[in-house]
Amino acid sequence: MDIFAQISSEIKEFNSTLVLVTKTKSAELISEYYNRGHRDFGENKVQELLPKYDTLPKDIRWHFIGHLQKNKVKYIAPFVNLIHSVDSLELLEEINDRGLKNERIIGVLLEIKIADEFTKYGLSEEECVDLIANPVLKTFHNIRIKGLMGMASFVDDEKTIKKEFESLKDLYVKLKSRFFSDSDEFCELSMGMSGDYKIALDCGSTMVRIGSLILGSRK
Ligand SMILES: *Cc1c(COP(=O)(O)O)cnc(C)c1O
Asked: Are 99 and 78 in contact (CB under 8 A)?
């Protein structure tokens, strides 16, 4: 069994989804995994995703995992499966507008800042609650908020990573019972990468985003 098969089955045991992160990797390489039956792939740049979308089979579920600029939403709105990295009302509004124009409902996750270290993107717990509680969201019929995403600190200390993932899980549970108790749509917790996915699975991750561990390091 190769590392892809090994990690896939490990993740399945936790009922979690593997998003294979293919940034900087070729469409040919993605095809190999597609031909092995994999369908969930993650990219972090719009200009890199578009040519891959064009050449690869249309039943791939594309996950957008990078910082998304408002003016680029229109390019991925026709096909993107899930946007993991939404951290403002303005971006949600734009995604909703583009979903409406494309007559589709676009799934999104809210990105939460859980790492201690300085990171530019992501909402604080308080900002996230304010955003979800904003009444204007009720008028956004072309987005579906499906859960949360977070990145732990890039440290070796497992306790720190575990604490951060647990805080994200706690917030997810809290938000689910306070705002989404009458539906099952808030059901995804995207956390875990090559270096920390095992900890993330133990903490309740439903989606792990893995690139280099399976595909090799990026240039
Ligand atoms: C690149 C990237 C990953 C995957 O990172 P690896 O360490 O290669 O597994 C996961 N999530 C995001 C947001 C990324 O940008």
From this structure: no
pLDDT digits (tens, 9 = 90+) for 8-31: 999 999 999 999 999 999 999 999
State pLDDT tens for residues 89-102. 999 999 999 999 99
Q: Which atom of ligand 1 lies nearest, measured to the CA of 84?
A: 13
Contact 68, 83 (CB under 8 A): yes
User: Ligand 1: distance of its center to the CA of 140 in Å?
Assistant: 29
Summarised one tens digit per residue, pLDDT across range 27-83 is 999 999 999 999 999 999 999 999 999 999 999 999 999 999 999 999 999 999 999
**151 Cα: distance to centroid of ligand 1 (angstroms):** 9
Question: CB neighbours (10 Å) of residue 26?
Answer: 11
